[in-house]
Structures are given as C-alpha cells and as structure tokens.
Write a structure and sequence with these properties.
single chain; D-Maltodextrin-Binding Protein, domain 2; ten-stranded mixed β-sheet; 11 helices; about 40% helix; signal; TRAP_TAXI; TAXI family TRAP transporter solute-binding subunit
Length: about 325
C-alpha cells in the first residue's frame, strides 16, 4: 500500500510538472494574432485568412487575416512587430534581408523568420478575349497594365519582366478585385497577375465574361528565368474553364513568416496546426495542395523560426542549425 501511494504521488507530481510547463509556455503567448495577407480578390487574402482561422481553432488563440499591400509590406510589418505572422515570396524576402526592400530601403528586415512552405506563385497575363491580344507580342505599345497592389510581388517583378521582353506600357496599381472590374469595364487593357492559382479574381472574371490567359513562349520563359529569381511553371488546364491545355509561365515560391522573437512553443503549435491539417487547408484554397512539409527545402533565403524548425526536425525534415534563427 505504501509503494502504491508513493507511485500515485509520483505520477501526480509528473502530471503537475507537465501541466505547469504547459502553462508556463502558454503564459508567454500573445493573447491574439494577425496574419498579413494582401488585397481582396487575390490568393493571399483567401489563403491567409483561412490559415489564420485554422490556427486559431487548433491552438485556442484568437486570430485572423488582415488586408495589406502584400509580400513586401508583410515583411516590414512582421519585422517591426506590427503583426505576428505574414506571407511573402522568396524574391522580396531576399531583397528585404539585403536592405533593398522598397518599403524600407537601406534597412535589413531580419526579424521575419520562415515558418512553413505555402505554394508557388505563377506570373500570368489575363486580358478580355475581344481585346485581340493572344500573346505577349500582341500587347500594344502604351497599353494600360494593372500590376496589383503597390509593392506587391507582381508590382515588384512583373513590370521588370515585361520591360525585359520589350513591352511598352502604362503602369496601374490596385487590388485584384478592383483591377478585374477595371478590365471588364475597359478601363485597363491587361492584368499581370502574380498569385497562387486559381486566382479568385480570374475565376470570377471568366464566369462573367470571355477572357484569354496569355502564356509565355518557350523563348520568353527562358529569357525571364535567365534574368530573375524564378522557375519554370505550367498552369494546369483544369485550373480555369478558359484553358484547354496547360499554360506556360514562371513562378516564385511563397512562405509563411513569423516574427523571429515570438515564443518558440507558440510558433511550433501554429506550424503544427497547418502542416498536420493539409486536407483542411486545401478546402480553404486549392493552392494549399503544395503546402506540405516536403517543400520545406524551397527556402534558401530566410532563417527558420526555432519553433517551426523544431516541428520540421521532429518530423524527419532536417533543417541545419545554421539556418535556424538564434
């Protein structure tokens, strides 16, 4: 009986210590969190708002997505502590680390850490079918082209890409939904999208009117790949009703980011919530089919948050110590 009592007391002490550790970990967590996304009508907004809600449900901390100017602004907001989490692409991330972000020129934004892989962002061109534009070469000189929100991945890279291909244009900015409305009303000629597919604004456009999704030629694709930090990509035919076959494009990887000084256990649980619930993520947006742990190696730019790195390392995806923020 004495031995039994000692065993019961010991077990109770272990449980109490475990509970105390858990309470101590959570005591350092924020009372709520915000995820920086991008404009409404784009993939970032749909995806980011969805994963914020999923994480909030899974870990019991209120959270939500917030409209922002996209990857560059998200890096700055997370770095400055205005938001806990955000979403970015690898090109803007590399520029931000080097102090070359258009949001904060000369200031290395190094307090934003990698959290988990999201998906590839294809760069694609959409026009109305009655425009007569069926290729990049068909875009008339001086055409008004919408490049998304100012400072977004599209706005940062797509104008340079089209200039590289010899296109002369009048640059316009705005949210994707707003630009889609302008295209339909004839106020602009072209939208140059950089967003995970299917892009909500394009899906809505093709329901309301006839559109062309313009692909790059092989030569154009190679020329862009030789000049910019992008890879070859094909937009699958089943992505849009408009496509009868895959469309040649280029793409850049997106990663979720976390403020580097957030508690390790908080980011660990938030990472676990997304990485272990891919079916729910795909229900939020089809681009999340690429949000799987195996794609962790697509990040060669940002240091990993220690909490995120711990989840990956525990689950068989090795992240080197020199790639983990300390």
């Amino acid at each position: 009986m004495k031995n039994l009592n000692i065993s019961v007391i010991s077990a109770g002490l272990v449980l109490a210590l475990g509970a105390g550790t858990a309470m101590a970990d959570r005591s350092e967590w924020p009372s709520s969190f915000t995820v920086g996304t991008a404009s409404q009508g784009g993939t970032y907004f749909t995806y980011g708002s969805g994963w914020a809600n999923l994480v909030a449900d899974e870990i019991g901390v209120p959270g939500g997505g917030e409209v922002t100017g996209g990857p560059n602004q998200n890096l700055a907001l997370v770095h400055n502590g205005d938001m806990a989490f955000g979403m970015t692409t690898m090109g803007p991330a590399a520029e931000a680390l080097a102090g070359e972000s258009p949001i904060a020129p000369g200031v290395p934004l190094d307090n934003a850490c990698a959290m988990f892989p999201m998906y590839e962002t294809p760069f694609s061109v959409t026009v109305l079918s009655n425009s007569g534009i069926e290729s990049i070469d068909d875009i008339p000189s001086g055409a008004s082209i919408g490049f998304g929100p100012s400072g977004s991945t599209s706005d940062t890279y797509f104008p340079r890409m089209l200039e590289e291909l010899g296109v002369d244009f009048d640059r316009r900015n705005g949210g994707w939904s707003d630009l889609a409305g302008q295209l339909q009303d004839g106020l602009i000629d072209v939208i140059a999208f950089a967003a995970g597919v299917p892009i909500p604004a394009v899906s809505q456009l093709e329901v309301q009117t006839d559109i062309n999704i313009i692909e790059f030629t092989q030569a154009e694709q190679q020329q862009i790949m030789d000049t910019f930090p992008v890879a070859a990509f094909e937009i699958p035919a089943e992505t849009y009703q408009t496509l009868s076959e895959g469309a040649r494009a280029v793409s850049m990887w997106n990663f979720a980011i976390a403020r580097c000084d957030l508690p390790e256990s908080f980011v660990y649980e938030a990472t676990r919530a997304v990485m272990e619930n891919n079916e729910r993520m795909v229900q939020i947006h089809r681009a999340a089919r690429f949000s799987v742990p195996e794609n962790y190696d697509k990040n060669g730019v940002l240091a990993w948050h220690p909490g995120a790195a711990r989840w990956f390392n525990e689950n068989g995806f090795s992240i080197d110590a020199d790639m983990i923020h300390n």
